[in-house]
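Researcher: Structure prediction, please.
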Amino acid sequence: MFKPNDKVYIKKYFGNEFRPDTNHTYEIIDILQTKNCIHNNTIFEKRAMLNNGEEHLIYTYNVITKKKEYYMEKKLPWYNKWLCCV
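Model: Predicted structure follows.
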């Protein structure tokens, strides 16, 4: 799961595809402990404070469908090393 000091990519839409934007890396400063309820208490969201000073959504969770949608992805430590060797 996500924790402070993790390097992450924020997911964005590229055309119709929802994937991480690997051009920008952010660091999680703090994970906010409160989950906000929206849509008649069926969707919960978890947020993090990033090193750019903005609060960003980590995931939403739908209580009814049990579906979790992630809006950021961890940067794997081997990602840049693997990419340069291809």
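Model: The first strand starts at residue 7 and ends at 14.
Researcher: Thanks, that helps.
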